[in-house]
């Protein structure tokens, strides 16, 4: 990378590190109705989870993220399922604080490397991690975490890539999140178990707050 991109990467990393301190658990959220967005975010914040990932998987996603950003300032909103440079631009235009992807194409890595937006590209292999590192991204999303080799895979990657930090997502739940967070190269862990689609559809906000509190306790225990 040239000097300007190196400086941008350093600034982006510092900002992302500051955001991740609000973790270490990131609810992965899929919203089908905009009217559920604000009460869901408030329920999660009440349970101690401020760092949110709103996935771009539904037509309601962008408007839902915008509503949370506007009405729940305590929430730190990230946009997930960023697949293209246009998705990254969309996340930035919405006012998201950071963005994540399940993987990363060369075009997406290049666009993200030239953006000030904190970005967590997805990787599942050593080669994909090398591509992310080459573009200045030292914090990556390990996805799908369990299917891609689980905890043994991250332990193995720690050897040749001591500088890499991971946010595993995919197959993580209340039973194993503590084991993932115990790894020294894991800075946060993402999962949808805290706010399942069925709970959101039922508007079971108290249940979601309780699950959030349990997740925070599990992470700290």
Kindly describe this structure.
Helix 2 packs parallel to helix 10. This protein starts with a helix and ends with a helix. It is built from 10 helices and 9 strands. The strands form 2 sheets. A 6-stranded parallel beta sheet has the order 5-4-3-2-1-9, sandwiched between helices. Strands 6-7-8 form a 3-stranded parallel beta sheet. The protein is of the alpha/beta class and 221 residues long. The chain is globular and about 50 Å long.
Features of this protein?
globular, 2-dehydro-3-deoxy-phosphogluconate aldolase, 15% strand, Aldlse_KDPG_KHG, 2-dehydro-3-deoxy-phosphogluconate aldolase activity, alpha/beta, 221 residues, single chain, TIM Barrel
* Share of residues in strands: 5-15%
Percent helix, as a range, is 40-55%
Number of DSSP-assigned strands? 9
CATH architecture: Alpha-Beta Barrel
Instruction: List the total number of helices.
Output: 10
Radius of gyration: 16 Å
CATH topology: TIM Barrel
> How many structural domains?
1
CATH class descriptor: Alpha Beta
Sheet with most strands: 6 strands, parallel
Mean pLDDT: 96
Which blocks of ≥5 consecutive residues have pLDDT under 50? Answer: none
Helix and strand run: HEHEHEHEHEEHEHEHEHH
Q: Distance N terminus to C terminus?
A: 41 Å
What strand order characterises the main sheet?
A: 5-4-3-2-1-9
Inertia-based shape: globular
Report the CATH superfamily.
Aldolase class I
* Global structural class: alpha/beta
């Amino acid at each position: 990378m040239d000097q300007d991109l190196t400086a941008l990467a350093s600034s982006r990393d510092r900002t992302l590190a500051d955001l991740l301190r609000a973790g270490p658990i990131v609810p992965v959220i899929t919203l089908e109705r905009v009217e559920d967005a604000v009460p869901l975010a408030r329920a999660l914040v009440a349970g101690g989870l401020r760092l949110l990932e709103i996935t771009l998987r539904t037509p309601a996603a962008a408007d839902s993220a915008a509503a949370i950003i506007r009405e729940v300032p305590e929430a730190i909103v990230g946009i997930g399922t960023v697949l293209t440079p246009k998705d990254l631009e969309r996340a930035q235009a919405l006012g998201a604080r950071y963005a994540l992807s399940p993987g990363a194409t060369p075009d997406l890595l290049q666009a993200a490397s030239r953006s000030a937006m904190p970005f967590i590209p997805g990787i599942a292999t050593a080669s994909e991690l090398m591509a992310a590192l080459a573009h200045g991204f030292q914090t990556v999303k390990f996805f799908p975490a369990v299917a891609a080799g689980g905890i043994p895979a991250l332990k193995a990657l720690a050897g040749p890539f001591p500088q890499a930090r991971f946010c595993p997502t995919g197959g993580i739940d209340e039973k194993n999140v503590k084991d993932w967070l115990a790894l020294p190269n894991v800075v946060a862990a993402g999962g949808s178990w805290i706010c399942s689609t069925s709970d959101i559809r039922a508007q079971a906000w108290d249940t979601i707050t309780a699950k959030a509190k349990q997740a925070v306790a599990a992470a700290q225990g």
